[in-house]
Amino acid sequence: MTLEKKSPISAPAKPISVFLQASGIRGGRYGTITLILYFLQFTKQDIINYYDHTQPHYRQWWKMENSMGLHYGIWDATTRNLSDAIINTNAQLARMGNISQKDIILDAGCGVGGSAIFLAKKYGCEVTGITLSQRQVATATGFARKNTVEHLVRFQTADYTQTRFPDNHFDVVWAIESMQTAANKSSFFKEISRILQPGGRLLIADVFKRGQWDIGQTPVMQTMLNGWAMSDIISIEQLQKTGKKYNFALSQNKCVTRAVVPSIKRYYRFAWLGMIGTKWYNLFHNATYFSKIHYKTGFAQYKAWKKGLWDYHLVLLKNDK
User: Fold this and answer.
1) Least CB-packed of 30, 45, 119, 250 within 10 Å?
2) DSSP string covering 92-158, please?
3) Is the pLDDT at 7 greater than 60, yes or no?
4) Residues 6 or more apart whose Cβ sits within 8 Å of residue 80
5) Where are the domains of the chain?
6) Which CATH number fits domain 44-259+303-319: 3.30.420.40, 1.25.40.10, 3.40.50.150, 3.90.180.10?
């Protein structure tokens, strides 16, 4: 007998089946029970659709006009509100990387440009931001003009695993909640190693796998990640192992999960409001896929955090090629 359990959501992406023998279960004349679970791989167009279709949500619920960020905010004694916390994530990662005016920086997965603009305003350094989304490029460019740093920052569409930048071009590569989106993490590290100068720094702020769970057997993580157009995430240990293949050595690692808990809880509360709004909107309009399911990610990220399935880390890796 075969039981089929599909992913908690369906998506316009290719499903990959994972076959698991149900140990200790005998089906008599039906044989051993096999569970079939599905997780998803997302195309570049899926990722573009996610960011394009959910940008209005971030404007409304995540204070995007003020913070110019889509990421989790780090709360401490200096933060008064969500916008402060989102900007504080930039500030803490920049301090970890010892950013200075002389640095030439690539923001790999720049979103709507907030990190690049923060770095340009605070340090006076040159920053190039890349994203798959033309809509994000337009939004980021507008924010740069508004903040009068258009002479220091530029934004363009590009795939951070296949750029056209010269070898050894950047001093720093910055990746806030973008590295884990790569379906093939090796492709990310290979390209970043190529474009970083020897001794260059890779700065990452992201969610990381905690524990030994498998994505095919963990529906709450499927819902959390699939709602962000992500297939799976790696652990800090896997990050070190993959990075080492491409001459990266872990220099600093700071778990800041406790400091992002207020952001996790806010995302959860906003999910309730988003669910009501989404269901009402869908009565009269044909909403896009990610617009329909985005609120589910808010619920799932909270439940997965409560289960101890993920942590949030700030990481500095140095390229020793």
Assistant:
1) 30
2) HHHHHTT--TT-EEEEET-TTSHHHHHHHHHH--EEEEEES-HHHHHHHHHHHHHTT-TTTEEEEE-
3) no
4) none
5) 2-41, 44-259+303-319
6) 3.40.50.150
Please give the DSSP secondary-structure letter assigned to residue 313: E
Contact 222, 214 (CB under 8 A): no
Sheet bearing 104-108, strands edge to edge: 153-157, 126-131, 104-108, 170-176, 196-209, 310-319, 248-255
Spatial CA neighbour of 248 closest among 311, 310, 186: 186
Total residues belonging to the chain: 321
Q: How far apart are CA 113 and CA 67, in angstroms?
A: 10
H-helix or E-strand containing 16? strand 14-21
Give residue-wise pLDDT tens across range 260-307.
999 999 999 999 987 876 666 566 667 678 878 889 999 999 999 999
pTM metric for this prediction: 0.87
Question: What confidence tens digit (pLDDT) does each residue in 45-104 have?
Answer: 999 999 999 999 999 889 899 999 999 999 999 999 999 999 999 999 999 999 999 999
